C-alpha cells in the first residue's frame, strides 16, 4: 500500500438495501487508486464515523437510494466533528428525497447539513473522481496555508 | 504404565489430575491449597501427598504439565481506538488468551486513564488501535503516555503496523512485543497473533513474576493460563484431530466463584437469508461475565436475575434469600448444606448460567426496509451446536446439573436469542477440560479419547419443576 494513498469510506446509509450502485462506485474508486473501506448496505451513520476513525479516512461517501436520506443523514457532520474528524470530506448521493423536488433545493438541504458535495441520480463515476481530486487538492492547499 | 500429571495452580486450590495415557483413564486426583502468596511448593506438595494417598504411591510421570490462574490469574489491560472496533478486537484477543481483563480502554488515554492503569498494575498491557495504514495518531499518543509512566509490565503491541516503530520508540525502556494487528483491515479480525504473543509472554515472564517457577522441580512446564487450557480442551473436543473424532460445534459453560466463563467453538454463521452485522466473530470465542460469580459476585447475580425471582424459584422469603446471599458473598468458602441452601445455590447457578450464555450467544432482529423485512444477526448463531458442556464446582456439585445446563437452551419465549436448540448436555464431572487442554500439547489422541470417555451425558431436566417437586 502506498504511504500517501487516500482512504475513502463508502456505504449505503440507514435501512437501505440498494447495494449495486454503491458497489460499482467503490470498485471504480479503488481502480482509480483509492483505498476503499466499503461498509455495504444497511449501515447506520455511526458506523461510517467509527470506520473512518480506525482507518484514518480522508472522505466518507454516503449513498441513499430509498428516499429517506434527509432523515438518515441529519447530524452526520456533527457526528464527525464530535469524533474529531473535523476536516473529513463528506459526499452524499442517490435518490436523496422522496417526491419531485428541483435538484438545487435538494442539494442545498444536504450542503446545509455539512456535506461537501451532493450527487443527483445519474451522476457519473468520473464526476465523483474529479470532485475528489479537486477537493483533496483544495484541502491540501488550505492545510498548507494554515501551517505557514 | 505411561502416566501424565496435569496441574492447575488455581486461585484457591492446587489441583492435580493423574491420567494413564495408554488406558485413557483418570488414575486419580489430588488437591492442596493455593500457596502462591507464600511458597507455591507448599500447596503443590500437599496436593501431591493427597494424590499419593489416593493412589497408594505415585507413578513415574512421563509428562508434568501445568496451567495457572494463581495470584489473580493473568491480569490484563487492553487499549484500543474505537470501542466497538479495535478496542473490542483487543478485548477478544486478551480473553482468548485466557486473561482476566481488569481494564479496557478506548480512544485517547486521559491522565485519569493512565492513573487507573497504573493502579490496576496489570501483568500485561495489550495496545491496539488503527487498521494497518489507518489511524496512527492515537495509538502513538497512547504509547507516549504509557511510555511516560512507571508502568512495569510488558506491553504487547497489536495496533496499526505503520505506527509500530513510533509506538515502540515511545515505549523505550519497557518490554515491548510487537504482534500482528488485531484488526489489520476494517472489520477484519485477526486475534491469533496477539493471542500467541500474550501466551508467550505468560510462559516467558509471568510464570516467574508470579513465583510459580518456584515449584519448577514439580513440573516440566507451565504452558498457559487455566482458562486458555479449558479453551484448548474445548477446541480439541469440538474439532477432534485433523477434523475427525470430535463432537462438532459446542459450548462450554463454567460458573466460577468470581465470574462465569462461556466458550464456544463454532463458526456461528447466520442462517440463509440472515445478514450478519458488526465485528466478525472468532470461531473460538471466550466471554467472561464479571457480574455473574457464584461467590464473590453472587450479589450481582441477584441484581441481574432479580432477588424476588430467585427467592420465588426456591420458595424462600425475600428476607431469607437476602440473608443467604449475604452469607454467600461474605464467605467464598461457603458450601450449601440444608435443602434450602442447596435450592438457593441451584437458583444462583441457574441464573448465572442462563444470563452468561444468553450474553455469549448472538441475537437476531428484524429491520424493515423498502424491500420488506430483513433479518440481521448480531454475534454468533449457536442454535445448531451439537453439545453443551458444563464444568466447574457449581454444576458438578449440584444435585441436578441437568437443570443448570437446561438454562443454556433456546427458549420459545425468546425467539430472538440464538441459544442452542437441541444439543447433547454433557457434564465434565472430573474437571478434565483443562487437563485435556494441557495434554493436547503433547499427546492429542490420548487427550481427546480421555475427554470423550469421561464426559457424562445428562438429561436437561427443567430445574423449576424439580424444585417444585422437591
Textual characterization of the structure:
- The complex is a heterodimer of chains A (148) and B (470).
- With 148 residues, chain A is of the alpha/beta class.
- Helices cover 46% and strands 17% of the residues of chain A.
- Chain A contains six helices and five strands; from the N terminus they run βαβαβααβαβα.
- In chain A, strands 2-1-3-4-5 form a five-stranded parallel sheet, sandwiched between helices.
- The longest helix of chain A is centred in the C-terminal third of the chain and has 23 residues, at 125-147.
- The radius of gyration of chain A is 15 Å and the shape is globular.
- Chain B is an alpha/beta fold and 470 residues long.
- In chain B, the strands form four sheets. In chain B, strands 14-12-11-17-18-19 form a six-stranded mixed sheet, with helices on both faces. In chain B, strands 3-2-1-4-10 form a five-stranded mixed sheet. A five-stranded parallel sheet of chain B has the order 6-5-7-8-9, with helices on both faces.
- In chain B, helix 8 crosses helix 11.
- Mean pLDDT of chain B is 92; it is low at 462-470.
- Classes of the chains: A alpha/beta (148), B alpha/beta (470).
- Chain A binds chain B through residues 1, 3, 5, 7, 15-17, 35, 37, 42, 50-51, 53-57, 66-67, and chain B through 81-82, 84-86, 129-137, 162, 183, 185-187, 275, 277, 367-371, 374, 376.
Outline the secondary-structure elements.
The complex is a heterodimer of chains A (148) and B (470).
Chain A: E1 7-12, H1 20-31, E2 35-38, H2 45-55, E3 59-64, H3 69-73, H4 76-82, E4 89-94, H5 103-112, E5 117-119, H6 125-147
Parallel strand pairs in A: 1-2, 1-3, 3-4, 4-5
Chain B: E1 3-9, E2 13-20, E3 25-33, H1 40-55, E4 61-68, E5 75-79, H2 86-96, E6 100-105, H3 111-120, E7 124-127, H4 137-147, E8 155-157, H5 164-170, E9 176-178, H6 192-209, E10 221-225, H7 226-239, E11 250-255, E12 260-265, E13 274-277, E14 284-289, H8 298-305, H9 307-314, H10 318-330, H11 339-360, E15 363-369, E16 372-378, E17 387-390, H12 393-396, H13 401-405, E18 424-427, H14 433-439, H15 444-454, E19 456-458, H16 463-469
Parallel strand pairs in B: 1-4, 4-10, 5-6, 5-7, 7-8, 8-9, 11-17, 13-16, 17-18
Antiparallel strand pairs in B: 1-2, 2-3, 11-12, 12-14, 15-16, 18-19
Amino acid at each position: 500500500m502506498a504511504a500517501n494513498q487516500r482512504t475513502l469510506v463508502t456505504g449505503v446509509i440507514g435501512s437501505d438495501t440498494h447495494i449495486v450502485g454503491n458497489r460499482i462506485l467503490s470498485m471504480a474508486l479503488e481502480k482509480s487508486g483509492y483505498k476503499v473501506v466499503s461498509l455495504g448496505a444497511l449501515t447506520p451513520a455511526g458506523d461510517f464515523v467509527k470506520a473512518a476513525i480506525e482507518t484514518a479516512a480522508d472522505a466518507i461517501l454516503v449513498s441513499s437510494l430509498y428516499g429517506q436520506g434527509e432523515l438518515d443523514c441529519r447530524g452526520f457532520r456533527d457526528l464527525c466533528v464530535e469524533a474529531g474528524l473535523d476536516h473529513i470530506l463528506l459526499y452524499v448521493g442517490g435518490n436523496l428525497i422522496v417526491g419531485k423536488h428541483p435538484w438545487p433545493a435538494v442539494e442545498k438541504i444536504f450542503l446545509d447539513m455539512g456535506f461537501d458535495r451532493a450527487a443527483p441520480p445519474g451522476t457519473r463515476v468520473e464526476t465523483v473522481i474529479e470532485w475528489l481530486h479537486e477537493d483533496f487538492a483544495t484541502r491540501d492547499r488550505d492545510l498548507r496555508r494554515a501551517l505557514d | 504404565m505411561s502416566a501424565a500429571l496435569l496441574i492447575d495452580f488455581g486461585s484457591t486450590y492446587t489441583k492435580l489430575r493423574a491420567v494413564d495415557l495408554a488406558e485413557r483413564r483418570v488414575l486419580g486426583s489430588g488437591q492442596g491449597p493455593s500457596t502462591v502468596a507464600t511458597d507455591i511448593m507448599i500447596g503443590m506438595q500437599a496436593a501431591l501427598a493427597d494424590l499419593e494417598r489416593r493412589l497408594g504411591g505415585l507413578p513415574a510421570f512421563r509428562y508434568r504439565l501445568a496451567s495457572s490462574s494463581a495470584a489473580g490469574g493473568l491480569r490484563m489491560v487492553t487499549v484500543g481506538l474505537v470501542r466497538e472496533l479495535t478496542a473490542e478486537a483487543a478485548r477478544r484477543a486478551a480473553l482468548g488468551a485466557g486473561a482476566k481483563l481488569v481494564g479496557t480502554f478506548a480512544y485517547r488515554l486521559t491522565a485519569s486513564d493512565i492513573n487507573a492503569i497504573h493502579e490496576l498494575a496489570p501483568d500485561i498491557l495489550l495496545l491496539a488501535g488503527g487498521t494497518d495504514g489507518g489511524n496512527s495518531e492515537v495509538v502513538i499518543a497512547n504509547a507516549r503516555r504509557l511510555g511516560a509512566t512507571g508502568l512495569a509490565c510488558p506491553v504487547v503491541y497489536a495496533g496499526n503496523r505503520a505506527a509500530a516503530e513510533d509506538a515502540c520508540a515511545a515505549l523505550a525502556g519497557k518490554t515491548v512485543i510487537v504482534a500482528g494487528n488485531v484488526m489489520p483491515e476494517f472489520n477484519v479480525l485477526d486475534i491469533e497473533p496477539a493471542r500467541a504473543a500474550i501466551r508467550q509472554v505468560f510462559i516467558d515472564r509471568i510464570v516467574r513474576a508470579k513465583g510459580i517457577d518456584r515449584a519448577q522441580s514439580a513440573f516440566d512446564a507451565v504452558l498457559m493460563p487455566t482458562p486458555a487450557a479449558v479453551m484448548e480442551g474445548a477446541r480439541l473436543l469440538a474439532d477432534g484431530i485433523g477434523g475427525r473424532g470430535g463432537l462438532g460445534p459446542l459450548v462450554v459453560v463454567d460458573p466460577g466463584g468470581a465470574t462465569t466463563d462461556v466458550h464456544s467453538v463454532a463458526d456461528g454463521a447466520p442462517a440463509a437469508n440472515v445478514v450478519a452485522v458488526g465485528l466478525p466473530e472468532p470461531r473460538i470465542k471466550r466471554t467472561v461475565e464479571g457480574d455473574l460469580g457464584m461467590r464473590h459476585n453472587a450479589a450481582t447475580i441477584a441484581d441481574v436475575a432479580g432477588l424476588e425471582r430467585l427467592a420465588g424459584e426456591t420458595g424462600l422469603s425475600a428476607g431469607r434469600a437476602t440473608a443467604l446471599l449475604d452469607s454467600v458473598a461474605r464467605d467464598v468458602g461457603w458450601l450449601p448444606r440444608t435443602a434450602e441452601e442447596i435450592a438457593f445455590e441451584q437458583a444462583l447457578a441457574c441464573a448465572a448460567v442462563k444470563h452468561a450464555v444468553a450474553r455469549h450467544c448472538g441475537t437476531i432482529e428484524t429491520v424493515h426496509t423498502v424491500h420488506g423485512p430483513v433479518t440481521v444477526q448480531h454475534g454468533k448463531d449457536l442454535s445448531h451446536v451439537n453439545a453443551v458442556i458444563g464444568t466447574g464446582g457449581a454444576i458438578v456439585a449440584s444435585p441436578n446439573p441437568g437443570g443448570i445446563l437446561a438454562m443454556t437452551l433456546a427458549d420459545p419465549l425468546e425467539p430472538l436469542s440464538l441459544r442452542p436448540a437441541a444439543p447433547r448436555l454433557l457434564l465434565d464431572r472430573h474437571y478434565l477440560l483443562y487437563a485435556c487442554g494441557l495434554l493436547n500439547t503433547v499427546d492429542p489422541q490420548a487427550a481427546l479419547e480421555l475427554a470423550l470417555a469421561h464426559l457424562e451425558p445428562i438429561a436437561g431436566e427443567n430445574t423449576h419443576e424439580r424444585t417444585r417437586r422437591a
